[in-house]
Specification:
Layout lengths: L6 H9 L7 H15 L4 E3 H18 L13 H13 L9 H15 L27 E3 L2 H9 L1 H19 L6 H6 L12 H4 L5 E2 L6 E2 L5 E5 L3 H4 L7 E5 H7 L6 H11 L15 H13 L11
Antiparallel strand pairs: 1-2, 3-4, 5-6
Helix pairs in contact: 1-7, 2-3, 2-6, 2-7, 3-4, 3-5, 4-5
């Protein structure tokens, strides 16, 4: 029997898919990644579940992206990850205890059997063969040699298709969030070093915490912090960077500060001068308010103030 696979066929499958969840682009991305790394034609549901955990963790816990317009209607995958992160007080997936991660993967694998695997091909073109088969009594899906080769040889293109449709869906649920496509396509939440901004932020050799205003005579007691969290902006604009003592930086984490610190940030920016080599421009004060209000509209954790 002839098997017909094409990147255009998969693009049509994604285009015509039901837009009630992001499970189809997530499953396509998981299939492409696993086939790219693994020669096996039998893919355990646990492997797919592990990929789902990786794909949804940063979007849910780090970037706080909604996967539905109304929180009560969010996908079960998101609810499982959010509940696990809250229960164990972890922000990074790597900090989740191995036993709890395995438990989460098991739950995610079970979720796949509930109208995810069975529904994936419902929107495929009639001329396209299924990418996999699945017997509901089995704990794995099966690829044909042809579909495995197609997934492996076109993994990058298929991920781009998945990212595009995933981001397009999220834009409808997170209308004011910046850089959604970058948040969807990133492998992990990698951040650049902020050390180069330390000298720019020092004032007359006397470092002062932006939040608690405690002073330290050197840079060693201070760190560079984003007032509006990096995980929301996904960049390091100098207008958003301040000095913070280690205690405040750790306590604030990725929370929004109380609005009084947004006002203080705007006052600071009226006097800061960017040194040569710092090309990122200062933004207008209304834009800072818009970023702050956008994060609030997405129910970003916020209104942090320093401990007394």
């Amino acid at each position: 029997m002839r098997s017909d696979y094409s990147v255009g066929g998969v693009a049509a499958l994604m285009r015509d898919a039901s837009k009630s969840t992001t499970y189809k682009p997530a499953l396509l991305k998981a299939l492409a990644r696993i086939a790219h790394r693994d020669d096996s034609l039998n893919l355990p549901l646990a492997r797919l579940g592990e990929e789902f955990v990786r794909l949804y963790w940063d979007q849910t816990v780090v970037y706080h992206l909604r996967q539905a317009a109304v929180l009560s209607k969010e996908a079960t995958a998101v609810k499982l990850i959010r509940a696990t992160a809250l229960e164990h007080g972890v922000h990074k997936l790597g900090d989740l205890p191995p036993s709890e991660r395995e438990h989460l993967v098991t739950k995610m694998a079970k979720l796949l059997t509930v109208n995810v695997l069975a529904a994936f091909h419902s929107s495929k073109p009639s001329t396209m063969s299924a990418l996999y088969t699945w017997d509901t009594t089995e704990t794995h899906i099966t690829l044909s040699p042809e579909s495995h080769a197609f997934l492996r040889n076109n993994a990058l293109s298929l991920e781009l298709i998945a990212n595009y449709h995933w981001a397009a869906y999220l834009e409808g649920c997170n209308r004011l969030a910046p850089r959604i496509i970058q948040k969807v396509s990133r492998e992990a939440a990698h951040r650049s070093s902020l050390a180069r901004y330390m000298a720019l932020l020092m004032r007359d050799g006397e470092a002062e915490c932006f939040y608690c205003e405690r002073r330290d005579g050197s840079e060693h007691g201070m760190q560079v912090d984003h007032v509006i969290p990096w995980s929301f902006l996904l960049e390091d604009p100098p207008w958003d960077l301040v000095l913070a003592c280690r205690a405040c930086n750790a306590q604030k984490s990725d929370w929004l500060p109380d609005y009084e610190y947004i006002e203080k940030l705007k006052r600071r920016n009226r006097t800061i001068t960017l040194a040569p080599g710092y090309a990122s421009p200062l933004v207008a004060e209304p834009d800072i308010d818009r970023f702050f209000n956008a994060a609030i509209s997405l129910e970003w954790p916020g209104f942090w103030t320093p401990a007394p």
